[in-house]
Amino acid sequence: MRDRIDDEITFRKLEVLLAFMETGNLAKAAEALNVSTVSVHRALHSLEQGVRCALFRHEGRNLKSTEAAQILADVAQEVMTLLSDGIRATREAAGYSSDRLRIGSLYSLTIKTVPGIVVDIKVRRPALHVELVLGPNVELLDKLKRSEIDAALMAMPDAEPEIESIPLFEDDIFFAAPAGSPYAKQEAVDLRDCRDETFVSLGEGFATYHGFVEAFRVADFTPNVTMRTGDIFSLMNLVSGGVGYTLLPGRVRGVFGDKVQFIPLKPQYLMRQTIGVSFLRARERDPNLLALMAVCRLRTRSAD
């Protein structure tokens, strides 16, 4: 069994020892560490107590190191180097300041938002490799909490202590119909007039799905949903093919040209999504995330 290391021996005191051994002078060591000379002297004396042997001797007013001090300094240098390498490897394993940035995103944001952000962040950090992970809001939030992604572009989640979110823009929900639909000529759709219609929707976990459910709760009826799909572009295909109506965020307007028409809803059904970038608060000082936040804030100001 290893000898227990005395509590007086700390990494900070070993740093003081290394500074003193390099400069050979209390005042110069204190200047290098940005502390007082008294603090350096106390740290060195405390190390002597911790190792239970003399490390220094006095020659007049000067403090001189012994062979024992040199041996401890050599070991301290190895320990500090190993610890530094270990911290770096730990951070890289957690995605902190590595050469890659894993961004989660809603499918609907890949049309315009994601490409713009990726281009801007590559300008700031050209060597950074950006990976894109697509999924619904619930799935992205879960991946974020488990550190499977570094940040998520999604509808802003409910407030949680471990998650930090920065808003990017707000998006209204529209009634989506195929070209030539009788609803296309209306200025605004009243969902209560759609009781007998067929609908299609996204699956649970998507931010747009929750808006869909809430809108029909206000309309006070359960829509006849004949098909659910796992991405918004497949959903738009179903609408354009006449399979059913649905509700869609304005950010995907125009993707299918005139094949899918976006019609405003009556005011009582107004649903608005706040899209933002979310990340773990524990990693808010990660250089890669700082660069991502800077890009997102700049784009928000430009949009305003």
UniProtKB/TrEMBL annotation:
Do you know which PANTHER family this protein is assigned to?
Answer: HCA OPERON TRANSCRIPTIONAL ACTIVATOR HCAR, TRANSCRIPTIONAL DUAL REGULATOR HCAR-RELATED
What GO molecular function terms would the record report? DNA binding; DNA-binding transcription factor activity
- Tell me a GO cellular component: protein-DNA complex
Q: Organism, per UniProt? A: Caballeronia calidae
Q: Which UniProt keywords apply?
A: DNA-binding, Transcription, Transcription regulation
Q: Where is the HTH lysR-type domain?
A: 9-66
Q: Which family does it belong to?
A: Belongs to the LysR transcriptional regulatory family.
Q: What is this protein called?
A: LysR family transcriptional regulator
Q: Which InterPro entries match?
A: LysR_HTH_N (IPR000847), LysR_subst-bd (IPR005119), WH-like_DNA-bd_sf (IPR036388), WH_DNA-bd_sf (IPR036390)
